[in-house]
Design a protein that fits this description.
The protein is an alpha+beta fold. 20% of the residues lie in helices and 31% in strands. The protein has a domain of 31 residues. It has two helices and six strands; from the N terminus they run H-E-E-E-E-E-E-H.
Length: 127
């Protein structure tokens, strides 16, 4: 009985909470649709001779002349279109269209909203 209680408290309950809150691949049972003004993070693969300091998963190219890495882009939802596509606003006030089921797209978590607040475009921007 003790083993069953330990299994329940250390395996099943944390897995259930993670599934509800979106811990498995960012998909949540109760995932809310994105609304205009919501901060989002888009992950993009880049190649350059000098990766940025906040680059993730940096690997040299085959001959070592360039680096391939992932960069996080901090955008804000400007509009959700009728087909579900997202029109995002970049910090340079450019527009990007993104599919809502794109695996590189996710909501900004609370820590990113606070730590990188200056990187997100201003929510007061009007067309």
């Amino acid at each position: 009985m003790l083993i069953l209680l330990l299994l329940l408290s250390f395996v099943v309950l944390p897995a259930l909470v993670a599934m509800i809150l979106g811990g498995f691949g960012g998909h949540s049972i109760f995932q809310r649709p994105l609304r205009p003004g919501a901060p989002i993070v888009y992950r993009v693969q880049e190649t350059s001779t000098c990766p940025s300091p906040d680059a993730i998963d940096v690997h040299p190219s085959e001959h070592g002349e360039f680096y391939d890495y992932l960069a996080q882009k901090y955008w804000r939802v400007e509009e959700v279109l009728e087909d579900g596509s997202i029109l995002a606003l970049t910090p340079l006030m450019e527009h990007q269209y993104v599919r809502p089921n794109d695996p590189n797209l996710r909501r900004a978590n609370l820590i990113e909203r606070v730590r990188y607040a200056a990187r997100f475009p201003s929510p007061a921007y009007q067309r």
